[in-house]
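Hey,
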Amino acid sequence: MTDAHCHPRDLLGFLKNAEEERLETGTACAGNAWNPEQFEYIENLSRNANETGNPRLIRCFALHPQLSAADDFSPRHGLELLYALAAEGRVEAVGETGFDLYDERFRAGEKVQDELFACHLETAVIYGLPMILHVRRAMHKIFPFAGEFKKLPALIFHSWPGTPGEGEALLRRGINAFFSFSAAVINNHRRAMACAAAFPEDRLLLETDAPFQPPRGKAYSCWRDLDLICGGIAALRKKAGSSCDSFEELETVTTANFFRAFTGRELF
């Protein structure tokens, strides 16, 4: 199984044996970090995976757009770290970056988010890195960048927030876009459910956003939730008459999509 978006260091606060669970479930994942401590943790996990042959961990780094709401937020050191990691080949994807206009607190930082996003996008284009997008109530800010997005090896939408039509429009523009779905599809989020049922199977990804998007009734999300998410999407696609409508097929195709999006290759 594969997890296109998770926060391994944050998950430790809920699940002390988180890495053991990842290995037990055989989950390859894209681990996100936004500060030096978090990145050091996922870099060590990634190094261990490479040395031992354990499931792959993709190293991702960016300054989250929600940081713009903090009174004492200063992006300089974080951006310097991003540039250094990219130049040294230590980061494999830029993300999660993007826009969060969910409420007034985040909307107040929109100008800062704009500046951060421009820096992240430029870095991804220069170093040929995939980009992971966080977008809440801000899809209108995405389409003006279509030309730049076409230069990226892949554009991964974490917890896809848009409509079926918006997803199709991105693909029509020649963007190598992938749409990742979390527990929203089993928590009765109708738009996410409709998109997961309708999108081409070669564009689908699974994610937990661990620990931040749990299935209803749970305190946190973890890698064992991927089975629930995969099964939920399979059921939605079967009901809609879409292709790739069994758990086994969906697990196989989302695994291939994961490695294609993050590494440019079909297999591990």
